[in-house]
Automatic annotation (TrEMBL):
Annotated GO biological process: sodium ion transport
Top-level taxon of the source organism: Eukaryota
Region (Disordered): 417-460
Descriptive protein name: Sodium-dependent multivitamin transporter
PANTHER family, alphabetized: LD47995P-RELATED, SODIUM-COUPLED MONOCARBOXYLATE TRANSPORTER
Places the protein is found: Cell membrane
Keywords associated with the record: Cell membrane, Ion transport, Membrane, Sodium, Sodium transport, Transmembrane, Transmembrane helix, Transport
Regions of compositional bias (Basic and acidic residues) in chain numbering: 418-428
Family affiliation: Belongs to the sodium:solute symporter (SSF) (TC 2.A.21) family.
Record keyword Hydrolase present: no
Transmembrane feature ranges: 12-31, 62-86, 92-115, 147-177, 212-238, 258-277, 283-303, 381-402
Pfam families given in the database record: SSF
UniProt GO cellular component terms: plasma membrane
């Protein structure tokens, strides 16, 4: 076995400097934004929830597209997926085949829908479909729509290119260890460790390379965690808390920080449990499929099924998501046969490593199914997402017809039967999120219509 190769001084310096610079830049802009908000007296700074959701719409489209890539360029995708490709092959890359369809759907359907309704999430579309018919906004603002289109298209291209690079890295690792499998030799205990092992053994002679890699990995992971935590907090606040509780800007900021802390705590606990449950990539794909099926069905229902009400969609999504999580956890803990891995050899390993070759080869034969397995656990998580979407759509339609109620009108607006007039008036003012209010107020401050320009010309 090769001797331990720890980080040298150059690696530590590069890692420390780059990490410190990244955090200092983030802290600086955070305090700069806070000072700008405190110094503003005309309300020109976006509200807390608008800022958390869209960054105040002050960033260029390319910067927001790069932020999307930063959300997926994390340690699991760099380290975990490379190890997954090394063990099981490149079948997971077929997921990228749907990127073109997903981008087209987002550009043609979702962006115009959300923009014209003046809402910020698909949950509000589901809610409005059963309670209020909000006034549609005009799509004549080409600057705004083109801005959103560019973000969707450019971010999709960047994401595909990133996963292409990850696939190239996986192919490189496969070729490098083609005749000296580190798992067979006992150098590593999990396929998730193949990238750190390669970094330690093969790049130790390149000055500061390991420090640069670790700094980039930490920065990407921090960016992903920050993006996910903020989006969880903002989505939960806007869709669950804001429609029912009127909070000031200060209280809203405190609530979103508490929600972000809770989301981060859950993510931390899950990260601690990952080593005991299996490889990170397989767990991610397993649980991602559990949530993506019901949520995809929720999007389809919001766009294509106006007869589905919020109760039916919500209960169907919750029930199927719980069922999917039960399937994912049960399948992970069952004795179902694991997928076959690429067979490795030790033909070109140093002589001391060949001593354990015969015993280590049994690793490839130890994953066979040895006991009774519940038939549903035999369903792959790649298919569970598809069937989860079908079950969600079916159950949502059934529950919606079972809970349908006669509509009534309030001042010409169709509202639900079980809402008071005050509640409906409150909802009409609060359901359209700060995305609409901030954007329209900005248009009034910074844009002039032809009629106003003519009036100003006459007065002058």
């Amino acid at each position: 076995m090769s001797s331990e190769k720890s980080l040298d001084t150059a690696d530590c310096v590069v890692f420390g400097v780059l990490t410190a610079v990244g955090y200092i830049v983030g802290i600086y802009f955070s305090f700069s934004r806070r000072r700008q908000k405190l110094a503003s007296s005309d309300g020109d700074v976006p509200s807390a929830d608008f800022e958390a959701f869209l960054g105040g719409q002050s960033l260029p489209s390319v910067a927001l597209a790069v932020s999307v890539v930063a959300s997926v360029a994390n340690g699991m995708n760099v380290v975990g997926f490379v190890g997954h490709y090394y063990a099981y092959g490149f079948h997971a890359l077929w997921i990228l085949a749907g990127t073109a369809f997903a981008t087209t759907f987002a550009v043609v359907v979702m962006i115009p829908l959300l923009y014209r309704l003046g809402v910020a999430s698909i949950f509000q579309v589901i809610y409005d479909s059963g309670h209020v018919e909000p006034p549609l906004r005009s799509m004549s603002d080409l600057n705004v729509t083109e801005y959103m289109f560019r973000i969707a298209v450019v971010s999709s291209v960047f994401v595909v290119f990133f996963f292409f690079l990850v696939g190239v890295a996986g192919g490189t690792i496969i070729y490098w260890y083609r005749d000296c499998d580190p798992l067979l030799s006992g150098a590593i205990k999990s396929y998730d460790q193949v990238v750190p092992y390669y970094l330690k053994e093969s790049l130790s002679e390149v000055t500061a390379m390991r420090g640069l890699f670790l700094a980039g990995l930490l920065g990407a992971t921090t960016s992903t965690v920050s993006s996910v935590v903020n989006s969880h907090a903002a989505t939960f606040y806007i869709d669950v808390i804001a429609p029912y509780y009127k909070l000031s800007e200060e209280k809203a900021l405190i609530v979103m920080r508490l929600l972000a802390f809770a989301s981060g705590a859950i993510m931390t606990l899950f990260a601690i449990a990952v080593p005991a449950l299996g490889t990170a990539t397989r767990l991610f794909l397993n649980f991602y499929a559990s949530a993506s099926g019901p949520f995809s069905a929720l999007v389809i229902l919001a766009v294509t099924s106006p007869w589905v009400n919020s109760k039916g969609a919500a209960w169907a999504s919750l029930v199927v998501c719980a069922f999917q999580i039960w399937h994912a956890v049960g399948r992970s803990m069952s004795s179902v046969a694991k997928p076959p891995v690429f067979p490795g050899t030790l033909d070109r390993c140093p002589a001391p490593e060949n001593i354990t070759a015969e015993a280590a080869r049994n690793l490839y034969n130890a994953d066979g199914q040895s006991a009774y397995v519940f038939p549903l656990y035999r369903l792959s998580f790649f298919w569970s997402s598809f069937f989860g979407a079908l079950m969600t759509i079916t159950l949502a339609v059934v529950l919606s017809f079972a809970t349908v109620s006669a509509p009534r009108t309030l001042n010409g607006v169709v509202v639900s039967k079980n809402r008071s007039d005050d509640d409906e008036r409150t909802k009409l003012g609060t359901e359209l999120t700060p995305v609409y209010k901030e954007r329209t107020s900005s248009d009034r401050r910074h844009c002039k219509t032809p009629q106003s320009a003519q009036r100003n010309g006459r007065s002058s």
